[in-house]
Structures are given as structure tokens and as C-alpha cells.
């Protein structure tokens, strides 16, 4: 399921260059410091310099965690995973350097006319470990287009900075900004929001002081949100089809019914249909882009975030050891029904067997974990759930010390695991329950995340581990005393079957990359796996389009569907509009 290299092999390099998104994880060294996890989109921002060195153009965002963590300890992991084609995960681990905007290194790697709007720094990674793993649980997605929202937002901010610029043609320093910083500009954003990390570590140090002018062509470019040609053609065809299909007697009847209902209601109650109000100045101000919020923070999961999370098809998890030389881990998680929200402060997920055991090992050592969701479809959004995974000290004001148990690892066949996941409800390869008690929820814009369309869950991991569970079941059936004879204390004897899942846990999941303890009891369990789950044929199926559409818009009755309801609403709206116009005409006549 996994291979390790000390440099990027050619086949990995070529595969990386075809991906549309990557993910970055870093962590502070403090036991109470946050682990950060960030998605990175936008074409042509990631570069392979050589087999041991990569770098990417870091865009302005509401946080500065990556830069702050790299300044403190340098540890970083960059991950790619396949959403299309054969399954694959690649992690690049090493030590990173930060080159801020307008430093010599930044300027050399990114000439002025090659920068993205809002370009903040260059992050360069010196690689010492390349790891590939299966990616058997990553859902199938179809890439649609780059999202241009971040470009639009930051190009506008750069234009605000350019308004305060003065061009000193006689100066050897070239074009420079004056001493005043626009409050709506990028430099002000860096100075105010990017100075320190969540934990108070230093972030941006010099970029906001730079006097180098942004590129006017880039800032003034119209960054349109474009869809691929095929999607545009499909969209136009769908629009024509929709218009023609909506012109039928049902719509007309319900339109008239809406008109009559509104008139009757007005006559019976004497309530006049309210007039439409103009946009408030604050709304207009927001629409002009001057008050866009890129990030918000909560101490628990708000209801609107909880409902949004439940609609996502996958999530990502990041953990890190405390050692300055320890590896930061970043893992994607798929499969419907494996993530659960207990309440606004507690979540848990069913942890599936993999070639690594980093998450469990890191939680046993220090408990820090971040779970992230990001929107591939619909409005942009990123949500991060921060928590600790063992008893740890936190220091809320005023100088209070609290010992808080905020998360746990419950291995296979522990009482807590069995209570949360009954035998017949488990996924094949289910290894543990990871529970997180949350102390911070962060939302951010997600303006740079590409558009993907979800297709279906990938069943390859289920198929792989169902076979291993079945091997354990068959071995147990042929030698019922096998579990009783195993040496639990030493673990020297293979539990149940050499080809089974428990042997996999013993051999592959005993310790992390850095030697921290991982699985401790699951491989010793005498509990037999569920034969009905292990024997199930886990087919790779793609849901039919008509089934999905039927679920999205159920046919309540032949005459009560979305079309007639809209016809009714339009009838109500037209009546209200006519009422308003009549009132205006009467006032004009009186005047």
C-alpha cells in the first residue's frame, strides 16, 4: 500500500504536475500549539525545481500559520491525492523556507509579470522523504475549472494599493509606493491580519513594508470565472431545454392561482403587499467588495457549519509530533457515513486501516489534531476543527490553568469502540475510533479551491480489507483455539492469519515513522470480524444520473413539482409588483 523514496522519482514528478490541487500541513512545537492544514489551488503555482526541491507561490489568506510554523521549526508536508484515474497519494516531507514578497529570492523565482494577484511569498521545501500510498478510499471527482474568486478579490486590493503609488522615474530604485498604506490594500491586509499566527508566532515581517509597485496589468486584468467549453455547451443546452419544458399548462394555471391567492388575501385581511426595498448602503458596500470577510472563528461548531459539514464527501486530518525533527502528517479521509457530529464540541470518525499509523501515534503523544473540510462544489468554504487528543494544560485568561481531556483514540474491540460502532455497522478494515473535543472552529474563504464534481465513493479499500478480514475469519473457523494461544504480551506470534487484517496491524501499524507507538491492542483481540461484511461484494458502482435527480427533486404529485411552485410564486410576485406600480401611478396623478 505504500513506498518510500529519498527523492522524487520521475513517475511521481510527472503525476504531480497533472494535479489541480495540493495540501500543506505544518505545526507549532508547543504542546498546546495548533496544527495547520491548508488546501492550495490555482494553476502554475506549484513548481518542481529538482528531485529534492519544490516550491510554490503562497497566496494571501486570512491566516499566516504556514509561514509562522516554518519560521519556528521548518517542518512541512505537502500532499497530493488522485481524484480522477488510478488511486494515489503522495506526501513530500522536509524542511521549508519562507521568502517574502520583494525579497531577492522571491523576485528571482517570481518575476513581476509572472505573479498571481495577492502573491505573498514563496515557500520552498527541501525534501528528505517521499512517500506514496494507495489512496483507495479517496472518492472519484471530476475537475471542472479553477476558481477565480481569490484573484478577483486580491486584484481589487492591489488596485487600491496602486492608487496610493507614486512613480519615481529618476530613482534607481524604480517605481515605489508612498509612505501611506491604503486600508483597502493588500499591504494593509498583511500588516493587520498576517503579522502573527494563532499561537502568536511571527508571520509576515517585511512584505507589508515593501515599496515595490504591483504589476498594473495583473491588478487590472479581468479575472473572469470561466467554465470548460463542454460545461458551457451543456449549460446552454440545459437552459434551452429548461425554458421549453417549463412552458406548459400547469405553470400557467399555478401562476394564475398565485395571482388570485394574493388578491384574495389582500381583500380578506386588508394587508397591502409590501413594497420592495432598495439595497441598503451596507449591502451595496459589501457587494462592491470592500467588506468581504475571509475568515471567522468560533469556540464550537455553529449550526450552519454543522449542516454544511454533513453534506461533504471527504475530509482531511493533520497531526504532528512534538520533536523538532518529527514528521507532520496529513491524511485524506473518504467514505460516506464515517464522520459523526456528537454535539457542537465533539466529533468522531471511523478510522480505516492504512499503511501508516501517524494520526494515532501523534494523538497518543500530544493529542493535537486538526480536521478540515473544503468545498469543491457550490459556494467557496473551508472549515477547520481544532482540538487536543489527551489530557493537556490550557491557559485561558486570567492566568487559569485547566486540565482538559479533549479527544481519544479507541482501538478496535475496546468498549468505547464497540459502543460507537456495533459489529454489523463497521466498514471492512475499520481500525479505531478517533474522537475530537473541539476548542476552536475556523472558517475561511476557500476562494482558490478548484471546482470539482463528486461522482461516487471509491470501493477499492473496502475490497482490499474485506479480503483480509475474510482470511482471519476462515483461519479462526479452522482453528478456534488460535486466538487463545497467541502471546499477547510479546506479540511474537502472528494473530489468527498471516494474510489477515490483525497481522497487518501488528506488522505495519505498531509504530509511526518517528518511532512513536501506534496500534497497541487491536491485533491482540479475539473478536471475530463480521462475515456478512467481509463476504459482501463491494462493487465499484456509479450512481445513475436519473436516480440522483430523483432524490434531489422527489415527485410529490404530478401537479406539485418545482415548476408549478415557481409559477405560483411568480404569480404572487407579479401581483405585488402591479400593486406597487398602481400605487405609484395614483400618487403621481394626485401630485
From TrEMBL:
Family matches, as Gene3D superfamilies: Electron Transport, Fmn-binding Protein, Chain A
Chain intervals for the UniProt region annotation (Disordered): 477-497
Domain Pyridoxamine 5'-phosphate oxidase N-terminal: 11-134, 304-390
InterPro entries associated with the record: Pyridox_Oxase_N, Split_barrel_FMN-bd
Stretches with biased composition (Basic and acidic residues): 484-497
Official protein name in the record: Pyridoxamine 5'-phosphate oxidase N-terminal domain-containing protein
Organism: Psilocybe cyanescens
